Amino acid sequence: MVQKKSTSAKVLADTATKDKIKKTSTAKKYGADSITVLEGLDPVRKRPGMYIGNTDKAGLHHMIWEVVDNSVDEAMAGFCNEISITLNSDGSVSVSDNGRGIPVEKHKVTKTSALETVMTKLHAGGKFGGDGYKVSGGLHGVGVSVVNALSEFLEAEIHRDGKVWKQEYRRGKPKSKIKSTGSTKDTGTTITFKADHEIFTTLEFDWKYILDHIRQQAYLTKGVRFNLIDARDEKNIKNYNFYFEGGVASYVRHINRIHNTKQEKVFYMDKVEKDIQVEIAFQYSEEYNETVLSFANNIHTKEGGMHLVGFRTALTRVLNSYSREKGILKEKDSNLTGEDTREGLTAVISIKIPEPQFEGQTKAKLGNAEVKPIVDSLFAEKLAIFLEENPRDAEAIIGKCLLAARARKAARVARDSVLRKGALDGLTLPGKLADCSSRDRERSEIYIVEGDSAGGSAKQGRNREFQAILPLRGKVLNVERARLDKILANNELKSLIIALGTNIGEQFKIEDLRYHNIIIMTDADVDGAHIRTLLLTFFYRHFLDLIIQGHVYIAQPPLYQVRKGKQFEYAYTEEEKDQLVAKFSSGSDKSVTNKKDKKDKKQDKNSDVEEDSGEDVEGVGEKVSGVTVQRYKGLGEMNPQQLWDTTMNPENRILKQVTIEDAAKSDEIFDILMGSDVAPRKKFISTRAKYVKNLDV
Ligand code: 0RA
Predict the structure, then answer these.
(1) DSSP 367-396
(2) What spacing in Å lies between the alpha carbon of 203 and ligand 1's midpoint?
């Protein structure tokens, strides 16, 4: 599969020399001769997926990561401190670095330049031998020749030995021999490639995605400047620079920027043992959740692995022994558990290892067993020193852990007693639930509706055979900050849990789910977005399985009704509204319609009027062209029939399935929206309220 190890062993003639982490150049002179020649590129174009995962958006972006990885390797080897990535206006991408430049000398066996060999032979690019150290790669460590094979064109420009060297390729084949085109004092490599439209289903780059990836690489490659330039629109060139002196410590500060921190100084260490480089930073915040990111060779190991295990073991052990030593934990006290030490913990663990083994379902788990004791001992040693040297931070950290331990015990007692009292036995369905008559779970749906008035419309408009309605009053409890005992004491959430039938926590049973579709239906305004987010947080934190198994949906009520005379249609997006206005206006006689029936007038009173022309229009809800646009601020503005037609009738309605596309990101959104710090939350909601309605968890 895509997962490839980035080591020299396979591609080297000289495998006897084991890789070493090198930060500085050594006397050894690399050249073209140490490349071992492997196969050509035909297999890559035949089965691109085998090399870059897929030919969709992800594969397209892997092309960039692959080229950038090569420059990152050069930086890791200590020869380069600046990498620039440019999206060009012709759809190509340039990646430049100020490293040594890819060697251009002739190879003994192939009789072509080293550059050409690297570009046209599979697996030849990894290594030039000896003490070079390649650490990035992994998921995309397939070699730059793969990028060449999958590019409509690629140009390599090398500054080396005082000369500028150039060679161009088309779909992996050299257009001509390598040429010297001038002289230069600098050294470095620039690769410009245009992904092949014959291969990829899309050629459109996602700026935000690239930005996030490059920022992450910058955190993981300290001291290297990354420039990211969006020059696709030549009139509006965007330029971002990332440079993090602090490495993963900067990353931790970045993650915690939206949280109140507990600990003043960020813990940081960077040490090498037995060829394994261990870089760790952490800082506790007032949050309840744990945010721990682990990386191996700059690949995000989402499933964790040996580095994470080593880190956790050492953290719990050292915090316990420190607490005992200082008498914070008395003899009668039980030890802090791992869970206690992780509440509110933000940490980044990044290791670099010559031969990573990636395991697990998504090949995102580090399997190297030797990593665990190394991370454990290096981290334990540095952590003990940190605690001794920073007693105030040590106190804050232990205090936070003790609080977590106490709260957990209290919550358990409270929850056990609630559960024992049978609060959730599910026999008594909540009074305000308008249940459906069918007991066929596969067909049944529950609409969770904001407020009693919308609840009333929904009850009247629904198909009572398979649609149940549960109106929720006011704001739902913010579960981000509440433990299970509090949740079970909250009437709105208790009703919901009983209605769902699954119970919660350790008692959760998905087989008991009473409705196949759980549909959140809230107003299309900021309050609605807030309630929706609260509910999503609740599902995300306590009913993750329901989301994973695709049971949770968000109803999409229309935003507008566009009307002309007796004719009307609904619009669910701004664009649809504009189209409808255009459609209705074009057939218009341009006469001013002043007559309105009573019902219209009443509705127009509480509706906004939108202009299609930008001119001011006199009179509420009227248009010069005779087209009226009514904005629905709330579900309550629709009568039961309209609500059924637009939002509840399975034939017409639009449901958005809630997915876990990017758990890390959604976590952050939840944190911002739900966490303790109010300022970023306000900012987020006010700047992004219109997107929140499309929030994916
Ligand atoms: C190995 C040896 C040498 C250069 C590189 C790798 C190299 C590869 C890439 C790919 C992108 N940018 C790069 N920069 C350098 C040459 C070693 C020497 O000069 O002796």
Answers:
(1) --TTHHHHHHHHHHHHHHHHHHH-HHHHHH
(2) 29
Top-level CATH class of 248-409? Answer: alpha beta
Express as a percent the part of the chain with pLDDT over 90. 52
Closest Cα partner for 343 from 396, 285, 304, 256? 285
Q: Kindly give the number of the ligand 1 atom that is closest to the alpha carbon of 80.
A: 14
Shortest-distance Cα residue to atom 5 of ligand 1: 102
Ligand 1 atom 8 nearest Cα: 102
What's the whole-number mean pLDDT along residues 263-289? 95
Residue 501 near residue 479, CB atoms below 8 Å = no
Testing ligand 1's pocket by substitution, the residue of 128, 142, 155, 187 carrying the most ligand atoms inside 8 A of its CB is 128
Mutation pick for ligand 1 pocket among 94, 96, 100, 104 (CB with most ligand atoms within 8 Å): 100
CA distance 368 to 354: 11
What letter does residue 261 receive in the DSSP assignment?
Answer: B
pLDDT in tens, 574-600: 889 999 998 888 764 443 333 333 333
Closest residue by CA, ligand 1 atom 3: 102
Provide the CATH number for the domain formed by 44-242 in this structure: 3.30.565.10
DSSP sequence for 400-463: HHHHHHHHHHHHHHHHHHHHHTTTT-SSS--TT-B--S---TTT-EEEEEESHHHHHHHHHHS-
The tokens of 329 are what? 């934990």
* Options 82, 525, 600, 645, the catalytic residue: 525
Residue of 527, 578, 600, 645 marked active site: 527
Ligand 1 centre from 168 Cα, in Å? 18
Q: Which residue's CA is minimally distant from atom 4 of ligand 1? A: 102
Which residues are within 8 A (CB) of 71 and not within 5 positions of it... i.e. 6 or more apart?
80, 83, 95, 96, 97, 99, 189
Residues 244, 257: Cα–Cα separation, whole Å: 15
Task: Please name the residue whose Cα sits nearest to atom 2 of ligand 1.
Answer: 128
Residue-range domain boundaries for the chain: 44-242, 248-409, 428-557+657-691
Contact 560, 630 (CB under 8 A): yes
Q: Which residues line ligand 1 (CB under 6 A)?
A: 29-30, 70-71, 74, 97, 99-103, 128, 132, 189
Report whether pLDDT(305) > 90.
yes
pLDDT digits (tens, 9 = 90+) for 559-568: 899 998 888 8
Q: Report the alpha-carbon distance of residue 693 to residue 362 in Å, rounded.
A: 30
73 is a catalytic site residue: no
Q: What is the CATH number of domain 428-557+657-691?
A: 3.40.50.670
Alpha-carbon gap, residue 586 to 654, rounded angstroms: 28
pLDDT digits (tens, 9 = 90+) for 484-526: 677 777 888 888 998 999 888 777 889 999 999 999 998 877 7
Distance CA(363)–CA(351), nearest Å, equals 16
Calculate ∠ Cα 35-96-278, nearest 5°: 70
The reply to whether 525 belongs to the active site is yes
Ligand 1 centre distance from Cα of residue 191 (Å): 13
| pTM for the whole structure | 0.65
